[in-house]
Amino acid sequence: MTKENRHRKMDDRTTYLEHFKVTEDNLKELTALALSKGGDFADLYFEHTIYNEISMRDGEVNSGGSHIDYGMGIRVLKGEKTGYAYTESTEWEDMRRAAMNAAMIADSPSGTDPGYAFSDGLLKDRTPGKHYWSVASLEKFGARQRLPLLKRLGDRISESDERVIKVLAKIADSFSTIMMYNSLGQLTFDSRPLTSVTASAIFQDKSGNTETNSASRSFRMGFDLLSASLIDEVADDTVKGIDERFSAIRPKGGEMPVVMGSGGSGILLHEAIGHAFEADFIRKKQSIFSEQFGKMICNPAINVVDDGTLAYNRGSVNVDDEGVPGQKTYMVRSGRLESFLHDRISAAHFKTAPTGNGRRESFRFPPIPRMRSTYMENSGCNPEDIIAEVRHGIYVDDFSNGQVKIGEGDFTFYVKSGKLIENGKLTAPIKDINIIGNGPKALSDIVAVGNDLKIDNGAWVCGKDQSCVVTCGIPTVLVKSLTVGGNA
Q: What mean pLDDT, rounded, does the chain reach?
């Protein structure tokens, strides 16, 4: 490390410590208190987040606001027990009380010896990368700068189609200052911008039939994200395909091949497969993949990745919420199950390195294994050739309202839009159908993978007891058989 880099690192440490009004001696004393009941590991998580939001309905501002979230949480691990406490203050007595509460919770009866120790010895690179930073500070841009962009978004949607009867446009942003310290003596920190643009519209034809559509973009950027071109892109996506929505039919259901379009179809990969790779489910043997490590589970052309390193991506992390550097993790490589998604607890259990997947909603929650940006890498097939392989089936490219059973892997997804495939060609638009299947089986039934990977940069949120921002993506893929719930 050069002298200049050492100086910059010291300046960063000082900046974050002063921001939360603590010293390194305070941090050491708090972890000692947290471990005073015999805990094995303790960590501290400090957060200061500023949120802003303004929305416009039918050309008029209908809501807006700003709020601040500030506090810190303390986690203690003892055997298989976790103690967690938080405070919305960084006053010494409040933090001390939280540390003792966490220690006592972890010391409650029924804890067992886990048979492992907490160490970062298996981490190959402890130096966080920079996957996002803000060029334009959010604090300098208020409603005056946002309103012209909101108006442009709403006007462009309204003027694009005479059937538009309602438009809602919203710009939301946040900036989080994060600092973490643990009983291994590691101090890490991060500053996380996040800006989102969303729009939704209701359309009504002359017969009184209505359809809805929405679009969004979200990145770890500041106000520099909000260009006229991005606003126009969101507006165009909000009205895209609405003619087909009005003319769409509900097809006959049954077992058939399904081609999943690139981009947003990756939500099925996230929900039906990705959750089953999260190592807390593996550790508790609640996942269908619990005994599959190292085995071939799908076509050798398939690589499935959970990635925290995509530049400016909504799901990226310079460091996760346990201070572990963000990284690119191959869950499946060449068809073989290569890695689960680990936080510190599961990594210690399996005697491997954490993968940077320890994430939390805020300082009020302990970290658990969570996805970041989950996608399937490209293979060599042209999307047109994949569709041409199907004699009778469906093509889908927009899902919602999915339900998944993590243990069994069974899923049901509602299809918002798609098309029939007849004799290798896309024909009539379809809607109001469900896709029903089993995640591991669907993965093993993928027989073709396209060369058109698209990351969907919408405002995705994943819920697993607590919410985390994520993204997903997939190239065009062909699943040889899924159940389609349509007309009898």
A: 91
